[in-house]
Amino acid sequence: MALENPFVNDPVKGDVWEQGFLAGFAEPEVDHLRPFSQELLEIYGAGEQVGRDERRRLPPNSGGEPEDGGDESQLLSFLIKLAEEAGVHTMGHFVLHGVFKNVGGLLTLMPMVIGIPGDVQLGPIDPDFTGPVDQPEEHFIALCPRDDHPIIMTGVVEGYWAGLGRDFYSEALTDMKAHGHPEAVVARCAFAEGTCGAIWPGRGL
């Protein structure tokens, strides 16, 4: 069952809560601060805590940190290996509703940043999706839902950042880590299924 955003009906607060969730999920041991008003900072922090809790619920070595810690390059290698061996799942069993609000949401943004055939209509990924990685007609792209990226930055659409469309999850994951913002995610678009959503490695097939 997908987690519920308590602010799903408020585009601004829902966006901030989900950004906090993504940051907490990506870096559960880090306190993230953003230049929000006090009210929005509290909402970001609430989402961040839910993201931390969700990440910590993963089984050991199933999307958590390598046992020996390590630097960013070791973590990236660990996550890529985990995806190849254990597959991927919907990120935190969570469907993104609020983020990318400036363009109408994730499913509206995707056709703007990757070539999607005109006869393909995208819907949200199943909140319980789990499966192998790098299957035919799957495409992956790193995205960042923060809307404060400089317009002159390559890949920026309405303030959001998008990497290149990739055929392999490892490439999009590398793009995501190189981007540097903890709110960044990798989205999986499956044209044959007509679905798209954020994913994370390692829950198991």
State the end-to-end CA separation: 17 Å
Domain count, please report it: 1
Say how many strands there are.
Answer: 8
Reported for the largest beta sheet, the result is: 8 strands, mixed
Radius of gyration: 16 Å
Helix/strand order: HHHEHEEEEEHEE
Helix content: 25-40%
Count of runs of 4 or more consecutive helical residues: 5
Describe the structure.
This protein is of the alpha+beta class and 205 residues long. It has one domain (11-201). It contains five helices and eight strands, in the order αααβαβββββαββ. It has helices at residues 11-26, 38-56, 72-86, 106-113, 169-179; strands at residues 88-90, 123-124, 130-131, 138-144, 156-157, 160-162, 185-190, 195-201. Strands 1, 2, 3, 4, 5, 6, 7 and 8 form an eight-stranded mixed β-sheet that branches. Strand 5 (156-157) and strand 6 (160-162) form a beta hairpin. Helix 1 crosses helix 2 and helix 3 runs antiparallel to helix 5. The two termini are 17 Å apart.
